Amino acid sequence: MASVDTAVEPNDSAGSEPEIGGVRRRDFINVAAVSFGSVGVVATVFPLVNQMNPSADVLALSSIEVDISAIEPGQAIKSSWRKQPIFIRNLTEAEIEAANAVDLSGLRDPETLADRTQEGKENWLITLGVCTHLGCVPLGAAQGEVKGEYDGYFCPCHGSHYDTAGRTRKGPAPTNLEVPEYSFLSDTVVKIG
Ligand code: FES
């Protein structure tokens, strides 16, 4: 036997609802609910944002100080900064002259050695040890490693050659080795980052 639906639909007509200060009761309830919801969202988001702030140990790693006093002209060392290799090279007079003798118009990424070093410290070439092609670590910083055709660095992954200013000279690397932000704290200590 078929049942008969006897439910009564509420009357939504505006004229049937009481008003509070000119605002219908249902509108008032909606506004109150939205306001409460906003407070809930703020309370939820704050801990997430707070968790995303770098911790003290991460901040400490954002810069490093390196003692360069033992790096003789013609030598380089590898360090690490923000989980990336860093090359710090003490250029010889001959390497500086070779870098300065290059015609910029023939460079893929034209920069002078002076652009890539600090005034009065042109012998200190500080770059990321990350090939700008696909991110391999080039050779040439450690004693006895191949330095490539331009006496700087060589990336064997696909054959990129960098010169004594760390500029890309041959192979697929599109840009020069990146120079990070750094400053000299003294003649023998450099701060990177
Ligand atoms: S990653 Fe260095 S040449 Fe490709």
TrEMBL record:
Keywords: 2Fe-2S, Cell membrane, Disulfide bond, Electron transport, Iron, Iron-sulfur, Membrane, Metal-binding, Translocase, Transmembrane, Transmembrane helix, Transport. Its cofactor is [2Fe-2S] cluster. It is a single-pass membrane protein. Residues 1-20 are annotated as: Disordered. Component of the ubiquinol-cytochrome c reductase complex (complex III or cytochrome b-c1 complex), which is a respiratory chain that generates an electrochemical potential coupled to ATP synthesis. It catalyses: a quinol + 2 Fe(III)-[cytochrome c](out) = a quinone + 2 Fe(II)-[cytochrome c](out) + 2 H(+)(out). Binds 1 [2Fe-2S] cluster per subunit. This is Ubiquinol-cytochrome c reductase iron-sulfur subunit. The keyword Secreted does not apply. It is found in: Cell membrane. It comes from Parasphingorhabdus litoris. InterPro entries: Rieske_2Fe-2S, Rieske_2Fe-2S_sf, Rieske_Fe-S_prot, Rieske_Fe-S_prot_C, Ubiq_cytC_Rdtase_Fe-S_su_TAT, Ubiquinol_cyt_c_Rdtase_Fe-S-su. The main subunits of complex b-c1 are: cytochrome b, cytochrome c1 and the Rieske protein. It is an enzyme of class 7 (translocase). Its main location: membrane. It holds the Pfam family Rieske. The Rieske protein is a high potential 2Fe-2S protein. The keyword Nucleotidyltransferase does not apply. Its EC number is 7.1.1.8. Residues 96-191 form the Rieske domain.
